[in-house]
Amino acid sequence: MYPCTNDGAPRAPSASRPRAALPAAAGSGTSLRVLKRDPQELYERFGAVLRCVRGVTEDACAAIGIGTTQAKFLRHIGDRSHISQAQLARATNTAPTLTGRVLESLVEHGWVRRRRSSEDRRQYVLELTASGKRMRERVVTARNGVIQSLARVLDENDAQDFERIAAKILAAFGSSAGTRAAP
C-alpha cells in the first residue's frame, strides 16, 4: 500500500503489509456552506498532498529500480529526440549540475547515449539506447499506474472541484506556478 500519514508524509514500506496505489476514496459529501480556514492550515494541507503524491511516485519508481529524476529524464529524452543537456535542464526545470550528475548515471546504466549534434558539432545531443527505451516503457507504465490510482481516489465531482481550484491557483500565480516538470 502507498499510504500517507495525515501530514502527507509517505509511510515507510513494510514487508508484511500489501502495497496498493492510493487509499480508497472517502465519502465525498459536498456542502454549500463556506468554511473559514486558517491560511496556514490550507497551505500545510496542500504540502501534505504534494508530499503524499511524491512519495507514491518515489515508491513506484523504486519498485522498478530507478529514481524519480532519472525517470523524468528518460521520459523527456524519449519524447524529444536529440535534445541537448541544456535543453533537458530547462525543459525539466532541473539545475544544470544535477542534470549532469543524473545524466551520467543514465549513461553508466546504458540507458542514454551522448553523441555530437549533426547541426552543431560543438554540442552533444542525448538519445535513448535500446535498453533505455525499454526502461522508459517501464517508467511510463509505473507513472500511468500512479495516475490511475490517483484517478480512482477522486470521483467526478472531486475531479471537477480539483480542476476548478487548480485553475484558480494557477491563474493567480501566473506561469511561474506551472514550470515544474512531473517525474
H/E series, N to C?
HHEHHEEHH
Major beta-sheet overview: 3 strands, antiparallel
* Helical proportion, percent range: 40-55%
**CATH overall fold name of the largest domain:** Arc Repressor Mutant, subunit A
Helix segment count?
6
N-end to C-end Cα span: 20 Å
What's the CATH H-level superfamily name of the largest domain? Winged helix-like DNA-binding domain superfamily/Winged helix DNA-binding domain
Q: Overall 3D geometry?
A: elongated
Name the beta content range. Answer: 5-15%
Mean pLDDT: 82
Task: Give a structural overview.
With 183 residues, the chain is mainly alpha-helical. It folds into two domains: 1-13 and 38-63; 70-173, Arc Repressor Mutant, subunit A, CATH 1.10.10. Helix content is 55%, strand content 7%. The protein is built from six helices and three strands; from the N terminus they run H-H-E-H-H-E-E-H-H. The protein has a three-stranded antiparallel beta sheet. Strand 2 (112-116) and strand 3 form a beta hairpin. The longest helix is centred in the first third of the chain and has 25 residues, at 39-63. It is elongated.
